[in-house]
Design brief:
Elements: H1 3-15, H2 19-24, E1 29-30, E2 41-42, H3 63-68, H4 72-95, H5 131-146, E3 157-161, E4 175-176, H6 180-187, H7 189-196, E5 202-205, E6 209-210, E7 213-214, H8 220-228, E8 234-236, H9 244-247, H10 255-265, H11 278-283, H12 289-305, H13 325-338, E9 340-344, E10 357-361, H14 369-372, H15 385-393, E11 398-402, H16 422-431, E12 434-440, H17 468-479, E13 484-489, H18 497-502, E14 505-508, H19 516-524, H20 557-560, E15 578-585, E16 591-598, E17 604-614, E18 625-634, E19 639-645, E20 652-654, E21 660-662, E22 666-672, H21 678-684, E23 689-694
Parallel strand pairs: 3-5, 4-6, 5-8, 10-11, 10-12, 12-13, 13-14
Antiparallel strand pairs: 1-2, 6-7, 9-14, 15-16, 16-19, 17-18, 17-22, 20-21, 22-23
């Protein structure tokens, strides 16, 4: 059904409602209107990496891990799977009269905020620190989730409009101040891409203020989203964010004023209860009936687009598709592609013929919580790293296990001495030929304020260090003299300086999903090659970072960081050796044709990254920026060619006033498997191919 037809039907239905009934439909838990045959509907659904909080669902890697695969097709396939399972669950729940929270077809995903600071607890929900990558992958997620059928399969929501990335502890009162340049260059592009290119059905505001205005009541909702970008869907507040207008931001004096401010700015749907005051606001003359009616029409337009009042092609999707074999295989594929190998002195892949005992150690080695991150569903099977290695190595090696330490506390057993699992870890290491050490965090240690219950800082990390017990465990295992492979399970960059200096191999698994342990085992033993790339910068320590509350991009992310990172954005090793040997920019500047050769001895998959430097422009970022990427696979010795489409804004820059302008005539493009920076060259031994290009 096209939007015009859906809106026409929505207008007709809404015209039959009383004003009180229209207002009742503007909150997330919309009640039934029985006289009009309208069932209750709960708008709140979550689906960052699988249908969340609604019971059984296929569990994919957390969003930051999905993005580390740098794989457009993978993201779209994951979103298609999520919408299929979402429909299956909606069909089944509806048949049983269950219209509870998290059981609808409006999913408040993806989160396309920029992961500007590694201390932010919710960064795990994003696609990383680059606005181009976030826009490309976010758009694919929207297309996959919403589908291209006669009816919308599920409705996606771009959040949190538009400048939001911590601190979590301050989000209800914080004012995120960003310059016009940073707004247009960093914080807005992904939202624009999802609205203009992917047709996202909903946009959610943030809790904080943006340059003085509360995000759910600011002028940009109307002026930018609707008037400039042409957004036609509905706008929803973050949960209980409108209450913050009067309680924390103090931009209004009452709930009535807050409800009216949000409504008049263009917020159509309230996650929370402040819109319960809309009728009083109307009676006080703070908001008019026309605006209230328009909000209701927008919401019912979405419901008609989803076919909630019709028979649709999705009605027969059976519950049996939930966690079906094809979906589980896709989850495993995503986990394999997301894992990033950061160091390898030659120990990987492990040689089955020379290993008789493997020590699996660490607080995340057998932790289900560490697999899934936040905003997750419930899997029927969880394969931890210990499970995966046990299953894989069971035929040829003994596997020994020690928790080693608690994930953050000084002891595992509360009546024991401190470090009560440390000697066990030493014993396991002594008995083993190789140690797989699995450390990191989980959703109780980084996440959302009020959601994580984090002992550090309401969801954010105070610093980039692993908790002290894990650092002590790392020291003890290094001193054991045994080969150690460190596996990090976390949703953010961690200071891995000690591991880089002292261990034989280092990799990050992010939060790899319920079956992540199987993917890890397959990579450890060479069943497949790691191929993920960092979508965030791993700094050497947090001393190099600007103040957490400073939203200026100066000194932040790979585009503006002028120091030497531990592991750069775009970096990741494989077991093969695919190198770009030549590149050619199309005459019209729409693509780069690359030729790559696998100079290694085994087939592998890798990501080719294209960076551009606008050499004539003083307004370009400090460092070359990502403008294209593609995944390639090559057999040992094979040469392949690929056309990499370029970002449509490749030849433009953002001025200090926020205007997009020409980047000049002279450009330098780099094509390779990493950034064109000194640290990537040091780590990989390869420089990307460089080509000068003049645009007339």
């Amino acid at each position: 059904m096209n939007r015009a037809k859906a809106r026409e039907r929505a207008e007709m239905l809404v015209s039959k409602m009383t004003l009180e009934e229209r207002i009742s439909q503007l909150r997330y838990n919309a009640p039934a209107i029985e006289r009009l045959g309208i069932p209750a509907y709960n708008w709140w659904g979550e689906a960052l990496h699988g249908v969340a909080r609604a019971g059984q669902a296929t569990s994919f890697p957390q969003a930051v891990g999905i993005a580390a695969a740098f794989d457009r097709e993978l993201v779209r396939a994951i979103a298609e799977t999520i919408s299929t399972e979402g429909r299956a669950k909606y069909n089944a729940y509806s048949e049983h009269g269950d219209r509870d929270i998290y059981k609808g077809l409006t999913f408040w995903s993806p989160n396309i905020n920029i992961f500007r600071d590694p201390r932010w607890g919710r960064g795990q929900e994003t696609y990383g620190e680059d606005p181009y990558l976030s826009g490309v992958l976010g758009s694919e997620f929207v297309r996959g989730l919403q589908g291209d059928g006669e009816y919308m399969k599920a409705a996606a929501c771009a959040k949190h409009f538009c400048v939001h990335s911590g601190p979590e502890a301050l989000r209800h009162s914080f004012d995120a101040k960003a310059s016009p340049k940073d707004m247009a260059e960093t914080y807005l592009p992904a939202f624009e891409a999802l609205v203009r290119e992917a047709g996202v059905e909903a946009v959610m505001g943030a809790y904080n203020r943006v340059n003085g205005e509360p995000a759910c009541g600011m002028g940009m909702i109307r002026e930018l989203l609707r008037e400039k970008w042409g957004f036609e869907g509905h706008f929803v507040s973050d949960c209980w964010a409108i209450r913050d207008f009067h309680e924390n931001h103090h931009v209004t004096d009452s709930p009535e004023e807050s409800a009216a401010m949000a409504m008049n700015a263009g917020c159509d749907l309230n996650c929370g209860n402040t819109f319960l005051y809309l009728y009083d606001a109307y009676k006080e003359g703070l908001v008019d009936e026309e605006r209230l009616t328009e909000a209701c029409v927008r919401l019912f337009t979405t419901r008609y687009l989803l076919g909630l009042f019709d028979e649709t092609e999705y009605d027969e999707i059976p519950y049996s598709v939930v966690e079906c074999p094809e979906h589980l295989e896709l989850s495993e594929k995503a986990a394999r592609e997301s894992i990033v190998l950061l160091k390898n002195n030659g120990i990987l892949p492990l040689d089955k013929n020379s290993i008789r005992t493997i020590g699996v150690i660490g607080p995340n080695a057998n932790s289900r919580a560490a697999l899934v991150g936040n905003y997750h569903g419930t899997a029927t099977e969880y394969i931890t790293p210990l499970d995966g290695i046990l299953h894989y190595a069971g035929d040829f090696a003994r596997v020994l296990y020690s928790e080693g330490c608690d994930i953050k506390d000084s002891r595992v057993e509360q009546l024991a001495f401190e470090n009560d699992r440390l000697s066990e870890a030493e014993i396991v290491a002594e008995e083993s030929d190789v140690v797989v050490l699995v450390v990191g965090l989980n959703e109780t240690m980084e996440g959302e304020e009020g959601d994580a219950g984090n002992s550090y800082a309401s969801g954010d990390k105070e610093d980039l260090f692993l908790p002290a017990p894990q650092r002590e465990l790392m020291r003890v295992l290094h001193e054991s003299g045994k080969p150690v492979i460190l596996c990090l399970i976390a949703g953010s960059a961690i200071d891995l300086s000690y591991a880089e200096e002292n261990f034989d191999a280092v990799m990050t698994l992010w939060y790899p999903g319920a079956r992540g342990g199987k993917a890890l085992a397959e990579i450890l033993f060479g069943e497949c090659s790691p191929s993920g790339k960092l979508n965030v910068t791993f700094y050497r320590n947090d001393n190099v970072l600007p103040d957490f509350e400073d939203y200026s991009m100066k000194g932040r992310t790979y585009r503006y960081f002028e120091g030497s990172p531990l592991y750069p954005f775009g970096y990741g090793l494989t077991y093969g050796d695919i190198q770009v040997v030549c590149e050619e920019v199309a005459e019209d500047g729409t693509a780069v044709r690359i030729t790559a050769e696998n100079k290694g001895s085994r087939s592998c998959e890798d990501v080719i990254e294209i960076y551009v430097d606008c050499v004539d422009s003083k307004d370009a970022p400090v460092n070359p920026r990502l403008c294209g990427f593609t995944r390639v696979r090559a057999l040992a010795g094979e040469r392949i060619t690929a056309d990499v489409p370029l970002d449509q804004n490749t030849f433009t820059v953002i001025g200090e006033d926020g205007a997009r302008i020409s980047g000049g005539k002279n450009y330098v493009f780099y094509a390779g498997t990493s950034q064109p920076d000194a640290r990537s060259l040091e780590l990989t031994g390869h420089s990307p191919v460089k080509i000068n290009y003049r645009k007339e």
